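We modelled the chain as a single entity of 260 amino acids. Its sequence is:
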Amino acid sequence: MKEKRFEKNHKIVTVVTVAVILALWFLATNLHWIDTRIFPTPQATWKAFVAVCSGGYKNHTLLQHLSASMGRLFLAFGLAAVTGIIMGLVCGWSAYARAVFEPMIEFYRPLPPLAYYTLLVLWMGIGNESKVALLYLACLPPIFITCCAGVRGISPLYLESAETLGASKRKVFVHIILPACLPDIITSLRTAIGVGYSTVVAAEMVAATSGIGWMVLDASNYLRNDIVFAGIFVMSFTGIVIDQALRLLEKKAVPWKGRV
């Protein structure tokens, strides 16, 4: 009962917060507290959104721009999820594997994406391959590190008890390690998709002609801040939808999380 009441109050606070922010935005721009050439009004942003939806931007509709970005993002994210989860679980279990892969991940993880994007362009060209590779490299470290830490965080008593009862390494992995790490795996996926989405703009900076990130970047070159804000809202909304889908997956896959 208390949990339901808390969720209801939480939603009310969220709605009120969003309403206050929108009201302040409307007042600040329409009363000229700030320069609308820098910060567009909500009305101008909405008109730009409608115009891009109906007429498109630079020969591509908004849906085409969004589809191009999502295609690059999900391809890279899928590859990073598969390799990152496998590498993370194996490295969390084996110190030898960790000694091999962890230094490579830690070497480039602190680097900003643009620091090595030029190398990817030199190696792979200016097509989608370099963009997908950049997003893949951005998504991989959060998944690898979280999965590795999840395995290492499992109590040795569980593993020793299973081995004492005669469980094979495969059964220990399937029935103990993997279920125990599921919450960490899904958390890492949520983190990685956010990192990947924030890197889309960088990935679409070089020789792209479509993509929501490219649209925002190109509009900023022409000081079309209304289109920039419209694109940012589209990116934010789609990011929230993706995150909510992963939250739903978490509830279905690990219903025990937070209850034990």
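As a brief sanity check on the tokenised model: Residues 41-253 form a domain with the MetI-like fold fold (CATH 1.10.3720.10). The chain has two domains: 1-34, 41-253.
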